[in-house]
Write a structure and sequence with these properties.
Number of domains: 1
Distance between the termini: 71 Å
Helix content: 40-55%
Strand content: 5-15%
Radius of gyration: 23 Å
Number of helices: 3
Shape: flat
Strand order of the largest sheet: 1-2
Length: about 130
C-alpha cells in the first residue's frame, strides 16, 4: 500500500473513531437524563429493570431524530432492547408497505388476506 493510501486510511479510521466517541458521549448524556426523568420500566412491555439488567433499557427517540434531545425528555421513551428493535423494524416495514402501495397506486391496507380466495379454488378442484 502506498504512503498516501495508508495516510488516507489512517485519517478515515481516526475520523470514524472520533465520530463514534462523540455519538457515545451524546447517547450517554441523554440516556442518563432519561433515566433520571423516567422510572426504569420499558414503555411497551412494562418490564422493570434494575442492577445489571438496566443496561438493556434504551432511549427511543419518538421522532427518530437523535439530535432532538429536549431537556424535558418529551422526545424520549425508555424501551428495552427487544421492544426498541421491534419499534424500528416496524417503522421500516411500514415505510416499505407505504412505498410499495404508492408504486402500485394503492393505499396501504392491513386487511389483505393471501388466502381469501382459497376456498373458492378448493371447491373448483373437486
Amino acid at each position: 500500500m502506498s504512503d498516501s493510501t495508508q495516510q488516507a486510511a489512517e485519517k478515515r479510521n481516526r475520523l470514524v473513531a472520533e465520530m463514534r466517541r462523540e455519538q457515545q458521549q451524546r447517547e450517554a448524556g441523554y440516556r442518563e437524563q432519561a433515566l433520571k426523568l423516567y422510572p426504569p420500566v420499558c414503555g411497551r412491555c412494562t418490564r422493570e429493570f434494575e442492577g445489571k439488567a438496566l443496561r438493556e433499557l434504551t432511549v427511543h427517540h419518538r421522532d427518530h431524530n437523535h439530535d432532538n434531545n429536549p431537556p424535558d425528555g418529551s422526545n424520549w421513551e425508555l424501551l428495552c432492547i427487544y421492544c426498541h428493535d421491534h419499534e424500528h423494524t416496524r417503522m421500516v416495514q411500514e415505510q416499505r408497505d407505504t412505498d410499495a402501495a404508492a408504486d402500485r397506486g394503492e393505499s396501504s391496507t392491513l386487511s389483505h388476506s393471501p388466502f381469501a380466495a382459497l376456498a373458492g379454488k378448493l371447491n373448483k378442484s373437486k
